[in-house]
Write a structure and sequence with these properties.
single chain, alpha/beta, Phosphoenolpyruvate Carboxykinase, domain 1, Phosphoenolpyruvate Carboxykinase, domain 3, Phosphoenolpyruvate Carboxykinase, domain 2, 3 domains, 10-stranded mixed β-sheet, 17 helices, 30 strands, 22% strand, globular
Length: 594
């Protein structure tokens, strides 16, 4: 077997060496590449992909590449994603469950010989700042060079991760595109095996297996698989939180800084808020992360967060200098663009803010017909976080940053006001558990349909969601109420009778953040309503803005009674796992609406 470096020189970790050797025997690759994580290594792999016609270098964006996937490998595949807990009850009603030994048998047959003719890459990666006691190390074995170059941007990868690992346990993840190559057989531009696709998580043994997809969170196992599904199970056992949340630092004109975490379903503006350019003079925002937060109670009793990732995997369509100038500046170089359109040495997508160039290659790799989308709605950019002009230096703090407020929000055209503050920690957990949103292209399936997405964690919770709610309730008991973050529901997407958005969003969202910031400092008033506290008109800075306060904050009791009935029915799914504290919150809301 041909290795790029001898295994014994690469690691002395006995369990890791054994697992690599067993996987080589199982998957039968032609070559083995043990990743060191250097720029030179990744440049060499990228050059091989260019030569193979997989990547196209972008002359107008130094160090950047374009590629496109198979048309049936473009998003998360929730129907093929499984939680393989020992008991079905532990996976809960929102996850697909398979009995572990049955799934292991299935995976054994899938992975047997699956890497023939390919290179097996071993990727050690650290989730979280190097040297942080909160960080965890994963090892991904894959036959996809695309995964290697993306993981290099998304994580702290290579020797630095092995140094962090020492001889500790690691999270193993085995991935294959599922297309072995016979001798002399021509490879496909984007090999994948949609008919046999499976992403399986084993929360008790903390392992991940992914077969048949090469795209996004299906293949970059550090992302949703480890950082959320497996980490959420670890967090429950160890007394912390692994959340689908952005983290941003906000500094007011007086120089006071606070950190906010926010959970939104995919493609609902998380990255835009994480890199917000506040429209209010004197306010400054800095980005710690745009997708995942690991949070723990610190020595002082406050909730602290780290971002386990080191890169952005952002949705491209709709990203422009108007909606997210910081993201546009971040992706000027050293970026990978997947399933956008390709123009002369550059990329293009719907909503980029310019007319499409004349000669445009669509995300399918064919000349654009001018009718269908030029870029896939879930096309992505991958880029190191350190390139963001407002990257917060505290993102590298091994202790994390203190969280003053937590936001939950989705796409709701009616019912939900612009912002609501929870009446207590348990009421805030109720707001998170009640989160619903209109679906987007980030997941395969129908777009625009309202679905429950508690805590924006529906596709990502690694155990029973009812127990997950109870874990949040429990975290609130570990410290005093005064030290816990305040919790808010936000909705940028309310529409008027003509179907137009009432709130301008983007940089103007800083006006809502200002009120939240001032509430966290006990410096802003609030009006109590049946659903929570809202800002009185004089407390929300609407200076220079043409918008209708009453339309943004009207509370239609009839609509809310329908919402309440819908929540009652939804929460029944969790049976005895639904916490009594949230049942009480449901009852209190019903009483307040009378």
């Amino acid at each position: 077997m041909q290795f790029n470096v001898p295994l014994s020189e690469w690691t002395t970790h006995a369990a890791l060496s054994k697992w690599i050797e067993e996987t080589i025997l199982q998957c039968q690759p032609a070559r083995v590449h043990l990743c060191v994580g250097s720029n030179e290594e990744v440049d060499q792999i990228a050059a091989q992909m260019v030569e193979a016609g997989i990547l196209v270098p972008l002359a107008k964006r130094p160090g950047s590449y374009w590629c496109h996937s198979h048309p049936d490998d473009v998003a998360r595949v929730e129907e093929s994603t499984f939680i393989c807990s020992e008991k079905k009850e532990d996976a809960g009603p929102t996850n697909n469950w398979k009995e572990p030994s049955e799934m292991k048998q299935h995976l054994k047959s899938l992975f047997a010989g699956c890497m023939q003719g390919r290179t097996l890459y071993v990727i050690p990666y650290c989730m979280g700042p190097l040297g942080s006691p909160l960080s965890r190390v994963g090892i991904e074995i894959t036959d996809s060079p695309y995964v290697v170059i993306n993981m290099h941007k998304m994580t702290r990868m290579g020797r630095q991760a092995l140094d962090q690992l020492k001889n500790d346990p690691f999270i193993p993840g085995l991935h294959s595109v599922g297309v072995p190559l016979k001798e002399g057989q021509q490879d496909e531009p984007w090999p994948c095996n949609p008919k046999q696709r499976v992403i399986a998580h084993f929360p008790e043994e903390k392992s991940i297996f992914s077969f048949g997809s090469g795209y996004g969170g299906n293949a970059l196992l550090g992302k949703k698989c480890f950082a959320l599904r497996i980490a959420s199970a670890m967090a429950r056992e160890q007394g912390w939180l692994a959340e689908h949340m952005l983290i941003l630092g906000l500094t007011n004109p007086e120089g006071v800084k606070k950190y906010i975490a926010a959970a939104f379903p995919s493609a609902c503006g998380k990255t835009n808020l994480a890199m917000i350019m506040p429209s209010l003079p004197g306010w400054k925002a800095e980005c710690v992360g745009d997708d995942i937060a690991w949070m723990h109670i610190g020595k002082d009793g406050r909730l602290y967060a780290i971002n386990p990732e080191a890169g952005f995997f952002g949705v491209a369509p709709g990203t422009s200098m108007k909606t997210n100038p910081m993201a546009m500046r971040t992706i000027e170089k050293n970026s990978i663009f997947t399933n956008t359109a390709l123009s002369d040495g550059d990329v293009w997508w719907e909503g980029i803010g310019s007319e499409p160039p004349e000669a445009l290659t669509s995300w399918l790799g064919t000349p654009w017909d001018g009718k269908s989308p030029a870029a896939h709605p879930n096309s992505r950019f991958t880029v190191p976080m350190t390139q963001c002009p407002i990257y917060d230096p505290a993102a590298e703090d091994p202790e994390g940053v203190p969280i003053s407020a937590i936001l939950f929000g989705g796409r709701r055209h009616n019912v939900m006001p612009l912002v609501t503050e929870a009446l207590s920690w348990n009421h805030g957990v109720f707001l998170g558990a009640s989160l619903s949103s209109e679906t987007t292209a980030a997941a395969k399936g129908e777009i625009g349909k309202l679905r429950h997405d508690p805590f924006a964690m529906l596709p990502f919770c690694g155990y029973n969601m009812g127990d997950y709610f109870a874990h949040w309730i429990d975290i609130g008991k570990h410290t005093s109420a005064s030290k816990l973050p305040r919790i808010y529901s936000v909705n940028w997407y309310r529409k008027d009778a003509e179907g137009k958005y009432i709130w301008p969003g983007f940089g103007e969202n800083a006006r809502v953040l200002k009120w939240i910031f001032e509430r966290a400092s006990d410096k802003a008033p609030a009006t109590t309503t049946p659903i929570g506290q809202i800002p009185p008109q004089e407390a929300l800075d609407l200076s220079g803005l043409q918008t209708d306060y009453d339309s943004l904050f009207s509370i239609d009791k009839d609509n809310w009674k329908k919402e309440l009935q819908d929540l009652k029915e939804y929460f029944q799914r969790f049976g005895t796992h639904f916490p009594k504290e949230l049942a009480r919150e449901l009852h209190h809301l019903e009483e307040r609406l009378k």
